[in-house]
């Protein structure tokens, strides 16, 4: 049941802290505080590349994974949505690792893309919530997202569980490749273990996010902006808004705005920005200033460290808890998912069963 929540989506949003914690428990040895993976079908020290494929939100999780794997583990990553990957016959480097991400384990395009990677000789690592699914049966190794059943059609907790697995995978590959020493691993593991309590804190901002939703609910179009690993979070936020509130939303890398979408900006097109403190903060802030100078209404998600400078230019600012920059995408995701939920409530749409959508897309 819904445990007293109004919708499964609301209940599942509230499960973020639990699910992140359960997934970490599966992947981190509490005694050594090291990431421990099952036997891998490739040698992580010498694997030359990874090819990631997935659909929808799972694909956006993969984009975050790509930023992490390339930056922290220095592993080159190809990534594509499954419906493209399966037909475009990309040249795959022999010995590469195929990585699939799926909540259901049954998505037709992802399953077909997986088979094409296998046919090209790639071993398959799947990040799955349904551990007894078609994809699970055909994978060489499965890393489970311990999210429990997800009933709401719009994915919430499965997404942060996917990010949790990808973060642990990044640490293990970085260690094997020698790009992360023991101290570095300890720092990133501490950041991950800190997440469940920080994720729970996001829910203390419910009133502020509801207030932000009143502006979003009046719009016909919304722009989502982010940089670095905040860019796929913007994509996730925009998808969630479209899915359940039927408001058109588009995500852009903040630096791309001046190459086109800035022409859209006026008071009727609010901008939702993910702008956590960190190395990209100043760059993102200056993009937001440009938008504001053109009359855009800025709705920003930052953290304690960015709060002062963001609230100086934004109409509304949500100050999420400050976490290690590595794990900011998880905290920011919870913020933008709640915003979509609150907006859909104001619009009066069917939150758990949005029109035209199915939970598991088993047709091409
Ligand atoms: C978004 C959403 C979809 C799924 C996509 C992949 O909220 O739910 O975009 O993420 O259909 O589904 P799975 O993960 O089951 O392969």
TrEMBL record:
Q: What does this protein do?
A: Catalyzes the first step in hexosamine metabolism, converting fructose-6P into glucosamine-6P using glutamine as a nitrogen source.
Principal place of residence = cytoplasm
Listed under subunit, the entry gives: Homodimer.
What range(s) does the SIS domain occupy? Answer: 40-179, 212-354
Recorded name of the encoding gene: glmS
Summarize which stretch of the complete protein this chain spans: 245 to 608 of 608
Keywords from the named record: Aminotransferase, Cytoplasm, Glutamine amidotransferase, Repeat, Transferase
Q: Which domain of life is it from?
A: Bacteria
- What catalytic activity does the UniProt entry give for this protein? D-fructose 6-phosphate + L-glutamine = D-glucosamine 6-phosphate + L-glutamate
Q: Where is it located?
A: Cytoplasm
Protein name per UniProt: Glutamine--fructose-6-phosphate aminotransferase [isomerizing]
Enzyme Commission identifier(s): 2.6.1.16
Q: Which residues form the active site?
A: 359
One GO MF term: glutamine-fructose-6-phosphate transaminase (isomerizing) activity
Its taxonomic path starts at: Bacteria, Pseudomonadati, Pseudomonadota, Alphaproteobacteria, Acetobacterales
């Amino acid at each position: 049941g819904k445990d007293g929540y109004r919708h499964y989506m609301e209940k599942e949003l509230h499960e973020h802290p639990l699910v992140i914690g359960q997934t970490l428990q599966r992947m981190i040895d509490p005694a050594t505080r090291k990431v421990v993976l099952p036997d891998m079908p490739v040698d992580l020290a010498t694997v030359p590349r990874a090819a990631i494929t997935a659909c929808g939100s799972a694909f956006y999780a993969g984009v975050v994974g790509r930023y992490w794997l390339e930056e922290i583990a220095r592993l080159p990553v190809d990534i594509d949505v499954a419906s493209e990957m399966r037909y475009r016959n990309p040249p795959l480097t022999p010995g590469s690792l195929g990585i699939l991400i799926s909540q259901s384990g049954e998505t037709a395009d992802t399953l077909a893309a997986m088979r094409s990677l296998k046919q090209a000789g790639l071993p398959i690592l799947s990040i799955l919530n349904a551990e007894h699914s078609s994809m699970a049966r055909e994978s060489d190794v499965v890393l489970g997202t311990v999210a429990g059943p997800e009933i709401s059609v719009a994915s919430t907790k499965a997404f942060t569980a996917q990010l949790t697995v990808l973060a642990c995978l990044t640490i293990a590959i970085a260690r094997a490749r020698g790009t992360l020493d023991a101290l570095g691993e300890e720092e990133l593991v501490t950041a991950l273990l800190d997440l469940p309590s920080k994720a729970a804190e996001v829910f203390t901002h419910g009133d502020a996010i509801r207030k932000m939703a009143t502006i979003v609910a009046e719009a016909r179009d919304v722009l989502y902006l982010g940089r670095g690993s905040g860019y796929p979070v913007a994509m996730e936020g925009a998808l969630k808004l479209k899915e359940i509130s039927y408001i058109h939303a588009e995500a852009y890398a903040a630096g791309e705005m001046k190459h086109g979408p800035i022409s859209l900006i006026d008071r009727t097109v609010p901008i939702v920005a993910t702008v956590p403190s960190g190395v990209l903060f100043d760059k993102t802030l200056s993009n937001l200033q440009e938008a504001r100078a053109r009359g855009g209404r800025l709705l920003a998600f930052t953290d304690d460290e960015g709060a002062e400078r963001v609230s100086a230019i934004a109409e509304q600012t949500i100050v999420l808890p400050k976490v290690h920059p590595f794990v900011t995408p998880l905290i920011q995701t919870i913020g933008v998912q709640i915003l979509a939920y609150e907006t859909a409530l104001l619009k009066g749409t069917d939150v758990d069963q949005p029109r035209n959508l199915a939970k598991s897309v088993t047709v091409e």
